Amino acid sequence: MSSVFSQDELAVIRRAYAKQILALSGIADNPRLEEAFAKVPRERFLGAPPWLMSRAVRGYEAVASHDPVVLYQDVLFALASEKGVNNGSPSLHARCLHTLRLREGERVAHIGAGTGYYTALLAYLVGAEGHVLAVEFDPVLAERARANLADLPNVTVVQGDGAEWPREDVDAIYVNFAVGRPAEAWIDRLKLNGRLIFPLGVPQPKPSPQGGTHSLYGAGLCVTRKSAGLAVRWLGHVSFVCAEGRLAQPGEERQALQAAFEGGGMEFVRSLVWRESATPGRCCFTGSGWALAYDEVPD
Length: 299
Prior knowledge:
By secondary structure, this protein is of the alpha/beta class. It is 25% helix and 27% strand. The chain has a domain at 90-293: Vaccinia Virus protein VP39 (Rossmann fold), CATH 3.40.50. The chain has helices at residues 7-24, 31-39, 90-100, 117-126, 139-148, 184-188, 253-263; strands at residues 52-54, 60-62, 77-80, 85-87, 107-111, 131-136, 155-159, 170-175, 190-203, 215-226, 229-237, 271-274, 283-286, 290-293. Strands 7-6-5-8-9-10-11-12-14-13 form a ten-stranded mixed beta sheet. It has a two-stranded antiparallel sheet with strand order 1-2.
């Protein structure tokens, strides 16, 4: 893959891209995140051209240029177009990674790693003393991620069902597909003061025009384990491709969750009630063994 730009010039372009992505995301105080976006080459994770750019309802269109410089913009490129799986919006991921506030030396699980671009950013943020477990359900994407990340000793790639990972306690979990409820492992393996970011969503009734099934309604949620419970922060409306594997199974809660989205109030959720009785009248949504409540969790 060649470019009309030299490697030094591409480094400058990546630096400009990093500054633009953080500015689009409203982030002014995270130099380590900016450095991660500036250092990790996006083209390494997107395969050979022609690259397919997502045009939303228009589906995918091939990018005319084969120069990797075109990849340094805030757009989605296909990883598996037939499934609607993309290398997602850099500005959206920047906001989520900023919210995670990763520290050097922390252990992170990346669930739904795709081909590893955002895994590489996570690896940069936790540093050589930290560790990233990257889990990908699709065998082809997992193999690509394993090859792309082979030179990063602080990353382990696993091909498997994201519902079953992590299997050891971690400081943070970053999920990149929509689910109707969090997996038990995501809650149970989260350390005290650990952070979980996942897209809660209800799938569209039929596949998307660009392939795969995406969320009809979706909310990015950040869950923090405190000594007094699980605090929740709403991160905004999001649309992700929906889970495969165990978490894709339709459940009795789906209709109730859709009603909760349509009724409004998800942005006011402040806590996740897990394996406990929820207070009647204080919940946006109540499922089997869990609920999203309006009550604050004390520090």
